[in-house]
Amino acid sequence: MTINAKKFITIILSICLFQTINVNAQISRGPQLESPVVHPDRTVTFSIRAPRAQQVELSGQFLTRNQPLKANDSGLWSVTVGPIEPDLYPYCFIVDGMQVADPQNQEIFPNEGFKNSLVDIPGDKPSIYSVQDVPHGEMTYCYYQSKTLGITRPLIVYTPPGYRESAEKYPVFYLVSGTTDTEETWYKVGKVNFILDNLIAQKKAVPMIVVLPYGNMLGGTPNPASPEAAEMYKVFSDNLVGSIMPYIESNYRTINEREKRAIGGFSRGGGQSLFAGFTNFDKFAWIGSYSAYLTREVFDKYFSNLSENPESTNGKLNLLWMGVGKADFLYRQAADFDNLMTEKKIEHKVLFTEGGHTWMNARRYLYETLQLYFK
Question: Are residues 78 and 176 in the same domain?
Fold first, then answer.
């Protein structure tokens, strides 16, 4: 039996149409459903259509514990919470024990391990990351060949307002994401581009190029207190110096001097930044650690020379900056690292804030240090 071309195409289109239907029928978008809905009093209504679900909860960093949703007769589950303090927060639904992002919300938290959405709670005045009426930089998705890992790797590069039209060269800030985050996280969640646009417009920050590398070195994620963590940090440092920096300096107008390079990161990215910065004082004069640390054992094994002549070390460091939240699960270790730097007579600045290991704090640390780099 033969099928003519027209009938064959009709069959294929029908199959594609049916594949767009959620076969589980457990979660569906449905008509005219909006979620989240942020109300003027900063309460927020979250909704999800899940007609076959038995239990749905809301999980978010604006909550002290998960909140149950209630379903109506058509299987629409909803809950209103708050008021919530102004900020940008991750959240998700727990549908019969399964974590899912909000199907109605296009603002997604880029991450390898969990699937969250984002909700922005505005305040009475613009936030540090608000999109304001100022000149904006550009975000470019790039790929480079990693000699260290032997594969092609992603990068995102921020160029400041006016970069395209000018012939000027710029300092470079390498900004590394945290454990299970991707190269997009400092962009989509950290909002580095809008924070820097606003600071440059206010003349509070130096115009700079910002490079967002993918911090996963494909060797697992060892505990930051373990010796294996330092080995992973070393792989990152080798990849940064051997592949990322040559790519950036070949394709962008950069000032290739140590005083015009900074490195910083959040969580795992903070540990990678500390290790790479301390290893490469000939390339970096500015180091930022956001909710991160190095252990005494790692420091003594790899960087004992820095404390043997602290005056020389301090002469090479324009800035060593550390920030951590008092409720952060890494607070004690980060505080120990602060004490270690003091003991070794290595000059540094530290900021202890409220809150935990969150991107709300990471954005604040970024905001603080962007005003210090290259000045």
Answer: no
Q: What contacts 274, CB < 8 A, 6 or more positions away?
A: 233, 287, 289, 292, 293, 294
Distance set, CA 46 to CA 57, 188, 260 (Å): 10, 21, 45
Quote the CA–CA distance of 277 and 340 in Å, as a whole number.
Answer: 17
Which run of H or of E encompasses 175?
strand 172-176
Distance, in Å, from the CA atom of 73 to the CA atom of 49, rounded to the nearest integer, reads: 11
pLDDT per residue as tens digits for the range 110-124: 999 888 999 999 999
Q: If residue 299 lies in a helix (H) or strand (E), which one and from where to where?
A: helix 296-308
The 8-class DSSP code of residue 258 comes to: G
One-letter identity of residue 167: A
Which domain does 244 fall in, by range?
138-370
Choose among 198, 194, 206, 107: nearest CA to 158: 194
Distance between CA atoms of residues 54 and 292, nearest Å: 40
Which amino acid appears at position 74 of this protein?
Answer: S
Which of 121, 147, 171 lies at the terminal end of a domain, its last residue?
121
Pairing of strands 172-176, 261-266: parallel
What tens digit of pLDDT does each residue of 298-347 get? 999 999 999 899 999 999 999 999 999 999 999 999 999 999 999 999 99
Determine the Cα–Cα distance for residues 341 and 358; give it in Å rounded to an integer. 24
Q: Tell me the torsion sign for CA atoms 200, 136, 213, 172.
A: negative
pTM (predicted TM-score): 0.89
Strands 286-290 and 209-213: unpaired
CATH number of the domain that residue 117 is part of: 2.60.40.10
